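Typical record is below.
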Amino acid sequence: MLTFGPSLTPIHPPASIATIPSIVKETGSALERYLVDAIKSNDIEVFKKLVALYAINIEGHKFKTGENFLHCAVAAGSEKIAMYLTGFSRDEVGLPASTVQALVNGKNDAGETPLLYAASFRSRNPVWARALIMRGAIDADGAALLHAAKNGLTGIVRALVRNHLNDYLDAKLGPCAPNVRAYVHGAEYSAALPKALAYAAEAGHLDIVRLLLKVNARDELATGLKAAIRNGHFAVAETLLERHHHTRWDLREALTTAAGDGHAAAVEWLLRAANYTPMDLHAALTIAARRGHADTVKCLHAKGADAALALAVALQPPGTNDEIDGCVISGLKVLGVLGPAVLTYAIKYRSAIDLPMLALLGANLSEATQAAAMHKDASSLHALFRKNVLPLKAITALAESGEVEARDFLLDEWRRYTGQTDQEHALGMRLAAVADSFVKRVLSRSEDEQQFQLGWDKLAKEGYWQTLEILRDASLLNTGALDILVRDQDLRAVRTCIKAGFPITELLHELLAEYTEALDAGLDESGRGLALFTLLKLAGADLSALPKDLNDRILETLSRVESAIAGLSKDDRDEHLHIALLGASVTEVALLLARGADPVVALDMLEPQSRENAIQKLIKAGMVPSAALINCVKQGLMELANGLIEATRPGKSEHHALQGADSLATAALKTLIAEKDLRTAQVFIDVFTDGSQALADFVEANDESSAITLMQLGINPVPVLLNILSRRDFDSAARLIALGADVHMALMSAFSGPEHDSVLGPRNSEVKKALAIAGAEPPIALLRAVEHGDGSAARNLIRKDMATGAEALWRLIWDESLSDDLKHQKLQFLRSAGLDISTVLEMFAGGQRGAFLSQFLKVESPSGAALTTLLNHLA
């Protein structure tokens, strides 16, 4: 609102005219105060008496800010004085016409006329405004019209329009003007008419909008329409739509503007008032989602906007850019689980979406594959295969549910897609039915396929007899290599091979020949040959092909050892195991273990330098090393426990070589969690393992309870999440996120390290993309970096996008949980990481954020003092 009059504190004028003569020559500011107070009190008699008494020049008098008497009267709402100054009073002697004109069109120091004052103040009975117009008030630039339209002063608008229209017609048409006024519009009121229409529409003044439409004020219709809709003035908007044929672009822009502003009511009205194409709805839904307007997103979706399309487009990076629209994805999550819908869309339209990543949004790719197989939809299956969706889980599920026909159809299509032979197809079908986790791991990574042929002995040592049986039947194994395991006296591996049906006829003939040759030469190799036969017998091998006397000797040897062991006490068995570890066969060690000899006690009896070989012998004999490790810890034998871990570390032994360096501790930890022995589990976490592999295994196995227990024990899920994502196991990643893994911390870690470098390696960008889909926000990741003092991550996040730093700064400033000192430290950290405050101000320019920040950060490179000023204000 405009101000008026001298900035003086008014004093009360004399109570009546009779008291005025008693005033002793009031001059200067005191007199002006009397005059102002008289005008404000609308006391025309006092006003005229003061003017007469002090011989004031009404036409030429100006107050300090340049207003004349009419400015003050209009601003104060003093009708009597305003009418007197415009020459409409009932006085017999009025003001001269020249004086009235000087007052009516007089301007203050800001160039404002009394007419502009009249249009600026919200009076609903502006009689003096009409009087000003009747007395020739000029509104050449339309400023008064704009103010009147904005403030809803219909009478003033009507008078201004009529006055201008008449002036224009009189000048152009002369005597004919009165006859044609009814047929000519006043569109020539400069640029003010259409702008006034936009102002009136924005303020919701329907009468003024209709009035201005009658004089063809239409250049700003689109602007007015959007403003009316934005402010919820739907009656005005409806009038604008009725009076003007808007283009599709106008209507689409109005919808997207309303959606972007989060104006759900406006969106609903527009959808009722106009027809929109699916692409219009898609555009509106996208911008509403991007700006996080949940109610508007739900409204548009309910009205038919295709959320699957919007999400599909957001997930599909433009061109060669690997970025996705994370804000849209996050905004659309309010609609519920959208992954399945997008999966259906992507399959149908062959979208370029990375389908496995849809698991992060709730899509179950195994179920989709099963459904396609059930419906014999080869096209959809091949679309899934092209996007790296492997059929293993679906094959297993179909087999378990008895859907044999669907399973076979799926396998046939997989064979066609991969170009497999019938033999390879049959092999894949059998392998898919095996529940062994290692087999599934190998099948999911094509680069590891050779492990079946080159590393089958590891499968034997891990006990995967079903897998070995399948590979043996497919002639993919060199079963003759069983000889190596037997000669190494690896009873556990040999037992796996025998169970898998490995042929041993040739091996028996070879061993028998060696044994016979040794006997004939008088060399029994200290009973080594017999030891190998007893090991095979203990492993379950059929030795009936051997000579009867040799079989009898084998059985006699085993019986003698078993009888001797059976007669021993518990302590004696432990002692005998201790001795056996130093020189006896693996068979004897295995028999002692079978009779309850404690390997931990036996190992503890040994000198440290002898333990490593003893541990290898125990493992070959069938000792479960993870169980032994648990017993060591429970008995407080920490040195022995460390020795056990070191002896089984990859490179020292092939045992557990398929897993990580702490695989033994991981196996033990998983056992303890299953047994709910959390006290011992905590010791393992504190001393032997970070628990990451155990957590990953539980998540992959969908063992939610065990995973939660590990996280409660302090296992950090963020490294696990990054590792799982780098392996593209998005199903497991989605489960871990649902259990509470912090995606923002994960994104921070993904940005940590030198530029163009990361612990994630070449899949770093893919992991970042997956995290964005899962809801990781760069500004929050940046704040996490500030919180943890990770300057590398902070620099990389800011370098990638300064808007990330700007948003983080804004959130930090308004974080009420932080003290001023802590805010100051964090702000300084952001600046040291590369956040440029002047750039932030430019980004926020024109908005509330920019105005707020600019108020306190007034220098181009704010110093610590400037930031302190800001923080002090916030306090």
Notes: Residues 238 and 329 are 34 Å apart (CA to CA). The longest helix spans residues 154-173. The mean pLDDT is 80. DSSP finds 56 helices and no strands in the chain.
